[in-house]
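User: My advisor, Dr. K., asked me to get a structural model of this assembly before our group meeting. I'm new to this, so sorry if the format is off. These are the inputs:
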Amino acid sequence: MAVSTTPEPIDTTVPAERQSATGRTETVPTQKRGVGARIPWGSYGVRVLAIVGALVLWYVLSATGFNFVVSFENVPDPIVVGKQLLVLLHSGEFYTHIAVSLRRILISFTIAAVLGILVGILMGRSRIFADIMMPYIETLRPIPAVAWIPLAILMFPTEESSIIYITALGAFFPVVLSTLHGVQQTPEVYVRAAKSLGAGRAAILRHVVLPGALPSIMSGLAIGMGVAWFSLLAGEIISGQYGIGYFTWNAYSLVEYENIVIGMLTIGGLGTLSTWLVKQASKPALRWQESNQ
Amino acid sequence: MTSDSTGASTMTENTTEIIPPMGKTGVNHFKPETGHIAIDGVSVDFGHGALAVSGASLDIQPGEFICLLGPSGCGKSTLMNTVAGFVQPISGAVRMDGEPIKAPGLDRGMVFQQHSLFPWKTVLDNVAFGPLMAGQPREKARSTARAFLEMVGLSTYAKRFPSVLSGGMKQRVGIARALANYPKVLLMDEPFGALDAQTRLVMQENLLQIWSEFGITVIFVTHDIDEAVFLADRVVVMSASPGRLIADIKVDLERPRSMAMATSPSFVRTKQQCLDLISAESKRAFEMQRAVG
Ligand SMILES: Nc1ncnc2c1ncn2[C@@H]1O[C@H](COP(=O)(O)OP(=O)(O)OP(=O)(O)O)[C@@H](O)[C@H]1O
Ligand SMILES: [Mg+2]
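Assistant: The format is fine. Below is the predicted structure of the whole assembly, which you can bring to the meeting.
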């Protein structure tokens, strides 16, 4: 599994001011675009169709036992998987796996978010601190979550804590780097404006640097949430009992192909859902960006 | 050591008046004896060969309107930034009311060329920022801000974010924000440079109106000769690199100024005087560049 924790390049520049050529008109375009309106319903339709298309293709490939370069001979078709899913949904254990994983994600993500934002801000505000932290971040960041498993087991007292460590570490890097990036991008003119209005260092941090960095921090959190999920999967190899990652691994050793597929899709679904939740949660704080168009 | 409490309490008492002058009051909020700026042999060096400002001396009386005129890159912003406290001279000194200027402060309001409104704050909270930093409680700061928004005619936009405003409206909010702390000096760095000609004229008249009611010292940077002559009591002309003050031209036009004066002999004469100086200066700079290159 290729694990990349590199955050996507994030565009945090405040969108260029739209200078109306004739500034004399006082009428201003004020059409309120809801957030949902960014993705028109037609677009949702296309997305649903894409998923349906994938299911159909999957069915055809498995049912015909497609075997050219990639083999679908042993891949269960979507109907078999769907039936097995119904069975699992009626068993309590499947929910336990999900609940345990969700709990780990919640704890790890919270740790990663708090530490990542804090360290990112400190690095952005203090040259020395940034110089101290940067070598650690640069060398630890490329290490995939799976590679941490042996050390994590040795270092941490319980299985649970080593899983949370691995998960949180993965989520930490995108958060810290995005926060740092956002803090460093603060336009000088805002800082000067604040100073000339009597703001001190603390007020500048609170009223200028942080709100300016917020879009970047928020997208770091969204990326961090995604990374948390695939780090979790690696971490749960350690677990001897529960977790959706453990469920998937276990299915592999027991050669339960349907369960493997279900495990994978569950992780994908939960990952998407939680990333979406993070984005939704950040919307109110970024309302000021919406009217830029 | 005896503590003197009477001296400190007078500072807070003069903030009880929260209504800015509105044209009807005819009240000057400032005693004309404050807001005296003494620029004394100021040189600024950014460390690339020529000085950015070289031996500039200028005495600005309280309540005076000064325009700083000069070709692009001659050091106008730099000189103004020494008054603002953003740039420290390598020699010479800038004093306000006898006190050397060391850092930016709320006694000197700034309006920038680029829009510098905080995009994440509403129009109202942008204007309320100064009073808030000056120690007013949030609600009081907001009511001060409302009065100032009223003054620039933008009350209806109080709850909107700056991104919905036109260029001219943004600068009006910028002026309101800079004045909301009742500074002694207003520093304006090409505030209308990005506006179209019509809006510019309206803004100039508004500014003169506000200035006459506030009785505040204004330093206004521009490279538009008409603008300088129309606004200023004195036009100070700056030479190209190294930036020196080469002329100090008194504008003999009565107040209040009106656009009709733009054709008066006195206006035309002053304008011609500036034009001659500037074109001689530009020619000299051009020759100098050619000699170097
Ligand atoms: N922070 C800085 N660091 C280094 N050099 C600077 C800095 N600010 C300005 N300069 C240089 O100082 C000189 C004067 O710049 P300044 O911005 O004061 O000119 P200006 O008259 O305001 O020009 P414009 O009309 O284009 O705004 C220029 O050569 C510029 O490159
Ligand atoms: Mg400038």
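One thing worth pointing out at the meeting: The pocket of adenosine-5'-triphosphate (ligand 1) is lined by residues B 46, 52, 70, 72-78, 223 (CB under 6 Å).

User: Perfect, thanks a lot.
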